[in-house]
Structure formats: C-alpha cells, structure tokens
Amino acid sequence: MLEKELSAIGSDYDLEIVDWEKREAGYKLLTDKGKKYLLVNQYDLLKILESTGTLRPNWLIKPWQDRFGSFWGKSESGDIFFLTDWQEIVPADWQKAEQRRKMTKTLAEWHEKVMHAAEGTCQEKLKIPQPWWEKAKGVIALAEKVARAAEIANRQEIKNYWQKLLAQNCPGIDDYRQISWSIGDRGAIFNNYAGICCCIPPLEIARWLELNGWMWQWQDEVLLEIWSDYIECRNIRDEEISLLQAALIIPRKIALGFARYESLAHFEEKREIFIEKLVNGLWG
C-alpha cells in the first residue's frame, strides 16, 4: 500500500519511482530520471500515511514560525520542509482553525452584497457588517497595488534574492548554475539536480518583497486564507521570471486577470471590469 502511494506521488511529477528511503522529514524517492531523488515533505506524507498509522500528527516537527496559519519547520534531522494547513498537523489548535474557517465562510457569503455596495450608503442599506466591508475595500486596493508592483518588478533582483534564500536555508547547495524551481502553495521549490531540494515559504518571500517596497502590507489573516486557495502552481523559465508571472503569493485570479492588460494605464481603463472579475474569482 505504501509503495503504491509513493509511486503515485512520482506520477504527479511525470517520474517513475524505482526505490525509496524513509527519512525523518519524509521519504526520499529514487526516480528513473538519471537516478535523481525527489524529497517528499512531511505535509504530503501526512495525507497518504495518516490512515495507515505510519505517520502521526506532530511527528518530529520542530516549528520555526506560525505565519497566518502555516508552519515552516525543521525535522530532527535538520531537513527543511514547509507545512500548510496547520490545523491538520497540530491537534491542539483545531478549535482555533475551525473558528477561522467559519470566518472565511462568512466573508464569502457577503460576496453578492459586496459586489453591489460601492459606497458607504450602500453598505448601510445592504446591512454589510463594517469588518467585512473594510475587507472588500482592501481587496480593491490590493488589485491596484498588484498592478503597480508588476510594473516595477525587476527580474534579476528576484532571481538574486531566491539564490540568497537558497544559500541561507540549504548550505549544501553550492552551485547555482543549474537550479530548477517552481512556485506552488508551499512556496518556491528549488532543486539543483543533485537531489537537494529546498522549499521557501511564500510568506517569507512576501516579507522580503514588502520590505523592499514590492508588495502590500500583510495584515488580514482571513483574506490570506482565501488568497492561498488561488495560488497557481507553475514552472517558470529564468527568462520568464517576473513578479506577476511567478504568481508567488498573488491570487490566481489577480495574476491571470492583470496578465491580460498591457500596462497600468490599460488596467485603469478596464478597472471596473477587472475588479468585478477579481471579486468573482476570490469569492464567486
């Protein structure tokens, strides 16, 4: 049963798993592509192994930080992994997690009303609670900030930053000339073709972008949870790197929506249409 499940993971990456080795932070899978290893992290294993009793919640987890409901942790062996959906991993916080899920659901239920409430008077007429109204206005402001951030994105600077993160978090990676990476809901995933993988959490990238004037302030936990549902996972070539294309932590609908506009001026012309698509995408 276990071998079958691990093989299924390899198929997701178009790889055949020919052997595997249990490690403290997960499983190291030997593939058929030139004897390359694929490190499956703790979060992936939790879903496929919990039912067998092989893996227990809290198993060898030494969390570093809890950032808006996601753990970035290390195992006893020091392997780096990034955990999401912390309510599934830390039972003590299940009650808190359920409360936040209900908040997110409540926000979504105001979708139709928010769509038609453009002014404060409409807000009162439709009886939209002030906290949800403020969140809706924040999303509209977010779309505009994303548009401006996309215009000033510097490709080389982003690439240099990712390499810096690699140096800090994966001391074993010394050669940056051959690095593949992808963007997903666990952050920027790097592999230097020598079987060494590294996961950089998206919020860690966001923190740097924010400090350097690239990104908005992260203050709303509820919206962060909604955004995380729309992260688009894709592979990006070096020459294609840009803040928008990589969709690091930008909602999928924002990234795809703005990509249709040639410039900020073009975005401003189509602003209302874009905002409608954005809100529909986030809450529809």
Number of helices: 14
Q: What would you call the structural class?
A: alpha+beta
Give the overall pLDDT as a whole number.
41
Distance between the termini: 38 Å
Beta fraction: 15-25%
Described by strand count, sense and barrel closure, the largest sheet is: 4 strands, antiparallel
Unreliable segments of 5+ consecutive residues: 23-129, 138-159, 169-264, 277-284
- DSSP, total strands: 10
Order of helices and strands: HEEEHEEEHHHHHHEEEHHEHHHH
Spatial strand arrangement across the major sheet:
9-8-7-10
Short key terms for the protein model shown above:
alpha+beta, 10 strands, four-stranded antiparallel beta sheet, globular, 49% helix
Could you walk me through the main structural features you see in this protein, from its secondary elements to its overall organization?
- The strands form three sheets. Strands 9-8-7-10 form a four-stranded antiparallel sheet. Strands 1-2-3 form a three-stranded antiparallel sheet.
- The protein contains 14 helices and ten strands.
- The protein is globular.
- The protein starts with a helix and ends with a helix.
- Helices cover 49% and strands 17% of the residues.
- Helix 12 packs antiparallel against helix 14.
- The protein has 284 residues and is of the alpha+beta class.
- It has a domain at 2-89 and 152-249.
What's the structural blueprint in terms of helices and strands?
Elements: H1 2-12, E1 17-23, E2 26-31, E3 37-40, H2 42-49, E4 62-67, E5 70-74, E6 80-83, H3 86-89, H4 94-109, H5 111-116, H6 120-126, H7 130-152, H8 155-169, E7 180-184, E8 187-191, E9 197-200, H9 202-211, H10 221-228, E10 234-235, H11 243-246, H12 252-258, H13 264-269, H14 271-283
Antiparallel strand pairs: 1-2, 2-3, 4-5, 5-6, 7-8, 7-10, 8-9
